[in-house]
Amino acid sequence: MPKARVTIEDVARACHVSVATVSMVLSGKPGINALTRKRVAAVAQTMGYQRRIRVSEKPLRRIAVVVDQTENSEAMSSGFVHRLIQGTTEIIEKFRMQCDVVLVDRTMFIDEELTNLAQRQFDAAMVIATEADREFNARLLDLGIPVVLVGMFSDTLYADAVQINHYSCMYDLVSHVISTGHRNIGMIGGQDSFIPNLRYRYHGFLHAMADHGLASDYIEPCTKDEASIRAATERMLERYPEMTAMICRDDTVAHGVIKVLHERGIAVPGRMTVTGFGDVSGSTEESALTTVQIDAHTMGMLAVNVMMNRLRVPAMMPVTAVIHAPLCIRATSGPPPLRTH
Asked: How many other β-carbons are positioned within 10 Å of the β-carbon of residue 114?
């Protein structure tokens, strides 16, 4: 009877660590102490672990766009996934390939979802990723097909990725707000998050403020929950009445902040500038938010190219394609109010 292939989960169980920890060790990424790194590497070698990549002479034909519908409801409703697929379509139509959107519920049926994906015989997968998905993504990588993470940097996964530079984009956004005359600038949703995207945005804010000689004293953490956004906004207004600009971690938080400001009769932008990140709603009369525009269309095109390169050279090191997202200066930002004496 042939010996069963050793998986990354087998190594994790043998070492009594998480799948993500094993992935970090095997990819040579920092963040794991030397003793754990040495032990995991030795166990993996002893067990004969090898990452499986299914190599085929046939061209890339069928791509899965995997979306966790619980973690990415905003991406689905905003059209992000639709724009992403439009980008992939420009490439796949030239080669007569097929693109299927696969909605999964990672939190409830992880084993069943992975089995279904394996049975559908995809040639490659694009994963609309959040850091909360890292365990699921690590197991998806072990299915033996090329996987490209779209939308986030991963500190823990040995995988190809297509992403924007969250740090530099936030740095540029804050610098723009400063250039219009603001000095009392706060961040709603700013915190050293375990989600890399948010962490990079937070540090982009801190460094932009520091480089312009401004203090980063005005920071309130929050989640995407409406009650959390409301509470953070009210705390900011009460603690820092001199505030003239609120930099929000993403568009959802920005829209929640604007709602609270309008309820309090605070003009946006006249009295307060508010910015988002992501451009999930686009530019409309109802939602003309100053933000950073994530180009899902281009990301989709890049992801397909990365997949095709992976199939041609399966042993190459993981590739991260980074694009710079432009600022969209719209109706929620402007100069600070004039001081009255």
From this structure: 17
